[in-house]
Write a structure and sequence with these properties.
The complex is a heterodimer of chains A (about 450) and B (about 280).
Chain A: H1 14-22, H2 25-33, E1 38-40, H3 49-68, H4 78-87, H5 92-119, H6 128-150, H7 155-166, H8 175-183, H9 190-219, E2 237-239, H10 240-265, H11 295-302, E3 308-310, E4 315-318, H12 320-333, H13 338-341, H14 353-374, H15 381-406, H16 416-421
Antiparallel strand pairs in A: 1-2, 3-4
Helix pairs in contact in A: 3-5, 3-9, 4-5, 5-6, 5-10, 6-7, 6-9, 11-12, 11-14, 14-15
Chain B: H1 2-31, H2 63-75, H3 98-106, E1 109-113, E2 120-124, H4 138-144, H5 163-171, H6 179-184, E3 195-196, E4 204-205, H7 226-241, H8 245-274
Antiparallel strand pairs in B: 1-2, 3-4
Classes of the chains: A mainly alpha (about 450), B mainly alpha (about 280).
């Protein structure tokens, strides 16, 4: 499961020896995030966001469990109960602001984590399973965050829930009964709030479970790195602890400072004022917008303004609403086939001049979609989101496969060691041997057809 | 290779058809835009000169102002607006003593049960009571206000965009319409029973102008100009919306100070741990 030179756990005290025989939990942690996990030595700061995402998942679970002790999922009292937390519960305001902004920061770090994966092609063999599990986590996060935003039972909670659950009504034939069944009525009501609370409590633990699978799958090939060249020998790696615990540790402190700026000095800027008005089914807000982290997908949903018809007959094949729903879900589901769309043998975007340009166009497209998702559904925003939506799918379904055919990549370094130190013994072996130069190190077994190796 | 090319062509054709098709109405709408034909409200709020004491990361409550604001709420706003998430005991945070809060609560009458008959009645407030609503229910509130519902004021500064300045602007926004804008909007007219207020989102508000010079006599002798009363009520409603606002900011300084120190130590240990592993920069 790990490289041949990985350090082995050695229980030192009688207790840890006893523990290692009965339940080798310390050994597991040692091998997962301790000195027993060799990691490429050249990771840049974009590789910090996985640990940060795990940290914010824990923040959400801890603050959320305490908030749940003071909350009541009943439409009569939910809004007042949140105000009770804000006013009467000791440090309740800090807990709630940390939980609300924690969701935003969870999405910030997860988006950076995902775009790291897109730039450095972390989804490519042998790491497809890590990527697929990551997409599952992202979908679970979106469901969890959506249901969490409904719980305060403000105006945006209610109307957001109404719009999003209404999407199921677009499904042909079974749409409306399905929607009524999911919501527990024709509009969000007490049943809806109760089931959303129940699921909002459950799903984070499901996420935690998939995160364990995600890390498990990561430890089989080991971490990717900015050159995209696989680890060849011991001098390419450093033990996770203390090297990356120290790097993640100080960077976590930096991110927590930014997080605190939001929690303590601008706790409501990422939210919406309408959610401090209690839900009122008879009064529709002027502009129903989801939380900022859903805006790109909301823009894709709203980009479809016309039905798909057979020309000149007026026969509707697919209604605009259903097209939008398909496109919105499709925009994330397309990530599931990404490892098989991008066939370039080179992983890192830094060595792929053409891919690099299109990657940044994709980033700009996402930002444009985010902006359009928050804008009113009027021109020119509809047209802009239509163009951006078109480009989004074009990038994944057409541009990526074509680039991997025609691109001439830059020369790759021979090894990670060479990328860091500027020189390396070209014949593998034991030179540059990190902390144990005398140790005999065998190179990793090559895969027979060479398909897993980057082009050199 | 053939399969991959087929897939590329299929993907191109599929998203091309779907997206282009749905773009047609959008392009059509874009080519024929409708001009807005209405009198727009002022989105930019005005602020009192010098801002508020609680503004900024170092902001603190101006207790004298909050007490004046409470007086404005009690003598003016509370005739129509409830404040249901605030309790009388919370007034201690404005600098009143426990005895003063008890006496103040007793000046309000709250719904109660007559202990001898069991019938609904009113009784003097206790510090543990919430502020009472001026109307028994929404229907009564609408009947009394020309079918408009006066919103609860507990959270009003958080429930509106730029809420603190919005409250201040709205209180002072009963101006004459700009004649130029009126000339541009042929249908411009303030319906009877409504009042022109350029900071209200549909410019005609059901609430009549409230703040006239010397409407109230401040307990601390401050001159009761409309600007003064508007600033005081905006400050008071900021406190009702978030009583923990100043504590939040002060806690923030402590937390960030601690984190900055811890992060500095963590960064130094990171530098030391990695000292032997950082390669020399590659020759350019």
């Amino acid at each position: 499961m790990s490289f041949a030179w990985a350090k082995q756990y050695e229980p030192k005290t009688a207790f840890t020896q006893w523990m290692d025989e009965k339940l080798p939990l310390p050994r597991m942690i040692y091998n997962a995030v301790g000195a027993g996990y060799p990691v490429p030595r050249n990771l840049n700061y974009m590789w910090n966001f996985g640990v940060l995402a795990g940290f914010f998942l824990m923040v959400q679970i801890v603050t959320g469990v305490i908030l749940a002790m003071h909350y009541a999922s009943n439409t009569e009292v939910a809004f007042a109960q949140v105000e009770h937390i804000m006013r009467n519960v000791n440090w309740g305001w800090a807990l709630r602001y940390a939980h609300a902004n924690g969701a935003s920061f969870f999405f910030i770090v997860i988006y950076l984590h995902i775009f790291r994966g897109l730039y450095y092609s972390s989804y490519k063999a042998p790491r497809e399973m890590i990527w697929l599990l990551g997409v599952v986590i992202f979908l679970l996060m979106m469901a969890t965050a959506f249901m969490g935003y409904v719980l305060p039972w403000g105006q945006m909670s209610f109307w957001g829930a109404k719009v999003i659950t209404g999407l199921f009504g677009a499904i042909p034939l079974v749409g409306e009964p399905l929607q009524v069944w999911l919501v527990g009525g024709y509009a969000p009501n007490d049943s809806t709030l109760n089931r959303f609370f129940s699921l909002h409590f459950l799903l984070p633990f499901v996420i935690a479970g998939v995160v364990i699978l995600h890390i498990w799958a990561l430890h089989i090939p080991g971490s990717s790195n900015p050159t995209g060249v696989e680890v060849k020998k011991e001098s390419d790696t450093v033990p996770f602890h203390p090297y990356y615990t120290a790097k993640d540790g100080w960077f976590l402190g930096l991110v927590l400072i930014v997080f605190s700026l939001f929690v303590f000095f601008a706790p409501n800027v990422l939210g919406h004022p309408d959610n401090y008005i209690e839900a009122n089914p008879l009064s529709t807000p002027a502009n129903i917008v989801p939380e900022w982290y859903f805006l790109p997908f909301y823009a894709i949903l709203r980009a479809f303004t016309g039905d798909l018809t057979i020309p000149f007959t007026g026969i509707v094949l697919i209604e605009a609403k259903l097209l939008g729903v398909i496109a919105m879900f499709g925009s994330i589901l397309v990530w599931f086939i990404l490892p098989w769309l991008d066939k370039s043998p080179v992983r890192s975007g830094s060595y792929r001049p053409l891919f690099q340009k299109f990657f940044w166009v994709l980033v700009v497209t996402m930002l444009v979609l985010t902006y359009c998702g928050g804008a009113p559904a009027a021109e020119p925003y509809v047209l802009i989101s239509q163009i951006a939506t078109f480009y989004y799918f074009l990038h994944f379904l057409v541009i990526l496969p074509i680039i991997s055919q025609i691109e001439v990549p830059k020369p790759l370094p021979f090894s990670i060691t060479e990328a860091v130190l500027g020189s390396d013994d070209k014949h593998g072996g034991s030179s540059g041997g990190g902390e144990n130069p005398g140790k005999v190190v065998k190179p990793l077994p090559e895969d027979p057809d060479g398909s897993l190796q980057p082009a050199e | 290779m053939t399969i991959r090319l087929g897939g590329i062509i299929f993907g191109l054709v599929l998203c091309g058809i779907l997206v282009l098709w749905s773009m047609v109405p959008g392009i059509f709408n874009y080519a024929t835009p409708e001009k807005p034909d209405y009198y727009a409200f002022q989105e930019e709020n005005i602020q009192p000169a010098g801002g508020f004491a609680f503004d900024g990361p170092l902001g603190k409550w101006d207790y004298a102002q909050l007490q004046r604001g409470y007086q404005v709420y009690k003598e003016v706003c509370s005739a129509c607006h409830s404040m249901k998430y605030v309790a009388f005991r919370n007034l201690e945070q404005l600098g009143y003593t426990e005895a003063e809060v008890r006496a103040e609560a007793a000046t309000w009458s709250v719904p109660g049960i007559d202990p001898t008959t069991g019938e609904e009645t009113t009784r003097p407030g206790e510090p543990t009571d919430q502020f009472p609503s001026p109307y028994p229910n929404e229907v009564a509130a609408r009947i009394a206000n020309n079918n408009a519902l006066p919103p609860d004021l507990s959270l009003i500064t958080k429930a509106r965009k730029d809420g603190v300045n919005y409250v201040y602007s709205l209180m002072l926004g009963y101006n004459e319409p700009d004649p130029e804008d009126v000339a541009k909007s042929p249908d411009f007219e303030t319906p009877s029973g409504l009042y022109f207020n350029e900071y209200f989102y549909n410019i005609n508000i059901a609430m009549p102008p409230q703040l006239y010079p010397d409407l109230i006599t401040y307990a601390d002798g401050t001159e009761a100009t409309p600007e003064q009363m508007a600033a005081d009520i905006a400050a008071f409603l900021t406190w009702t919306a978030e009583p923990s606002l100043v504590q939040r900011k002060q806690t923030g300084w402590f937390v960030i100070g601690f984190l900055a120190f811890a992060t500095f130590l963590a960064f130094m240990s990171y530098k030391q741990i990695w000292a032997g592993k950082k390669g020399k920069k590659k020759k350019a």
